[in-house]
Amino acid sequence: MPQTKKKPVHLQEAQAADNVVSVRNVSKSYGDVEALRNLTLDFPRGQLTSLLGPSGCGKTTLLKIIAGLIEADSGEVLVDGKTVTGPGPDRSFVFQDFALLPWATVLRNVAFGLELRGVARAEREDTARRFIKDVGLAGFENSYPHELSGGMRQRVGLARALSVDADVILMDEPFSAVDEQTRRKFQEDLLSLVKNESKTFIFVTHSIEEAVYVSDQIAILLPRPSRVSEIIRPGSFRQKSVENIRRDSEYLDIVDRIWASLRSYVE
Amino acid sequence: MYLFGYKLPGMSSLLVWGALWELIGRLDLTFFVPPLSKVIATLFSIIGTPAFLSALGDTAYAFVMGVLFAVVIGVPVGILMGKNRLLDELLLPWVNIFLSAPLTALVPVLMVLFGFGVTTIIITTTLFAIWIIILNSRAGVMQMNRSLIEMAHCFGASPLEAFTKIYFWAALPEILGGIRIGVIRAVKGVIIGQLLVSIVGFGALFELYSSNFLMSHFWAVLVVLFALAFTISELLAWLERRVAFYAAKR
Ligand SMILES: Nc1ncnc2c1ncn2[C@@H]1O[C@H](COP(=O)(O)OP(=O)(O)O)[C@@H](O)[C@H]1O
Ligand SMILES: [Mg+2]
Q1: End-to-end CA distance of chain B
Q2: Which of A77, A227, B58, B140 could anchor a disulfide with A84, C-beta 3.0 to 4.6 Å?
Q3: B171/B165 Cα distance (integer angstroms)
């Protein structure tokens, strides 16, 4: 008897576990400004989900609520089934303005997340060196952030987020402050990162092309107050090689479709 | 400065003023201004005397202690004010009042409270130095990049870690700027304190020399004090320039 009772519970758990992050009926206002209203959204494990929408529609707010950096007025965020009450080791963040320590070397910056988690110096520097190599910055371990280009700085921010080995990586318009060529290279690297690391990425962008290019799932947010208007899951071209995506007809169709639904919100 | 095409070393204009002083002294207009050469001769004759050395020692001790307290209290308080709105609202008016207050007028009160000794002088020194240190540390925190704070929070920094690993370093250039101005004020504080207490350090020496009309002694001590204050301030400015290098890059 107990076994038959347990089974549905187990099934439910398995289903819930597919979504590593669940946002449930979250609302948030800044004074009179209603940034998010009753927003519900799921983020499947091991996939990259983009939050796409015009500026000021609450993307950063949603991301920071998931990160536990700001508190929602109502509703809740579940990570692996547990309610978020603040930042935790299961999530790490890549900042739009990089948020690097200007007085610290690349090595210390990348290791800083581990430093705060109390990992011993030799160990955290080993880990940091590995990720510095992974993001293509080998040889720059002892440089300072001001000696690097914007693109390289964001690689440092990315290495820092990866080195703490969190399940969920939150990225707030990570490529918006780097030039177009660098950004394209980043997008390709991000695709292989999603493929090779078994991590969940939540990626904020205001670029339609970028969202369609990198995402397994795109949540389109409409502003004032922000809500999810549509969820798009690109299918066929995800398996293609990076060079062919931008020429794929489904890729172009989705870009057009998103533009059609967003254009009326652009003043 | 250039003269007839030759570059003169810095502060060579002081020679002109020195010559003027010598001239006025030689003219014997007033006993109050002895010739500079006599002052310098006196300076070398008293500089090794036990009375002078103990005055220097007392002053240095009070100065160092006063500055130490101002820094050790002022920097954390300033940083906390920058971090915490409530604390800021509570303390800022007082900091501003004390910053511009004529603190000399407080010294007699301090003498009543803490006696005619080195404690009063240390407290006076601290009171002269601390307010600008608080204000600058606060300003340093207020101008810092907010996302550094979010980053630290996100990667699990405890409040103490955020304080020692983020806030302090982010505000360091402003903190050092505040300490430099604070130290210059502390020089004033320690001398004013000693003059008013007048039985400790240079205060006692001044008292002794002026009441015995030993004018060249009086001037000699004054020259030493001015030179010390100037040297300290230049030293700190040099230190600050070295930090400004990274401040400009952040
Ligand atoms: N700290 C804040 N105080 C007041 N209003 C804010 C604050 N942060 C964001 N907002 C407002 O909330 C809305 C959503 O902001 P945000 O989440 O930054 O949007 P996005 O990242 O999509 O551009 C905007 O209208 C913005 O002006
Ligand atoms: Mg934003």
Answers
A1: 35
A2: A77
A3: 11
Residue nearest to atom 17 of ligand 1 (CA): A58
- Ligand 1: residues with CB < 6 A are A 30, 33, 35, 55-61
Q: Which helix (H) or strand (E) holds A43?
A: strand A33-44
The length of chain B is 250
Instruction: Tell if the CB–CB gap between A93 and B150 is shorter than 8 Å.
Output: yes
* Confidence (pTM): 0.80
A187: confidence class by pLDDT, cuts 50, 70, 90:
confident
**A235 and chain B in contact, CB less than 8 A:** no
Which DSSP helix (H) or strand (E) runs through A52? strand A48-52
Domains of chain B (ranges; CATH) run 42-249 (1.10.3720.10)
CA distances from A106 to A142, A257, B5, B176, B227 (A): 6, 41, 49, 25, 43
Give the pLDDT confidence of B180-199 residue by residue, as tens digits: 889 888 988 888 888 887 77
Gap between the Cα atoms of A42 and A61, Å rounded: 16
| Domain extent listing, chain A | 1-90+169-180+194-267, 99-165
The CA distances from residue A172 to A61, A157, B223, in Å, are 10, 11, 61
ipTM score over 0.85, yes or no: no
For residue A129, the Cα-to-chain-centroid distance in whole angstroms is 23
In A, which residues are within 8 Å of B145 by CB distance?
97, 99
pLDDT at res. A9: 42
Q: What is the pLDDT of residues A124-160, one digit of tens each?
A: 999 999 999 988 888 898 998 888 888 889 999 999 9
Q: Could you say which of 3.60.15.10, 3.40.50.2000, 3.40.50.300, 3.40.50.2300 is the CATH number of the domain covering A1-90+169-180+194-267?
A: 3.40.50.300
Q: Report the nearest-CA residue for atom 20 of ligand 1.
A: A56
CA of A46 to the centre of ligand 1 (A): 28
Q: Which atom of ligand 1 approaches the CA of A57 most closely?
A: 22
Closest CA of chain A from B69, distance in Å: 27
- Distance separating alpha carbons of residues A51 and A59, to the nearest angstrom: 6
Q: Which atom of ligand 1 is nearest to the CA of A64?
A: 17
What pLDDT, in 10s, does the model give residues A14-24? 444 488 888 88
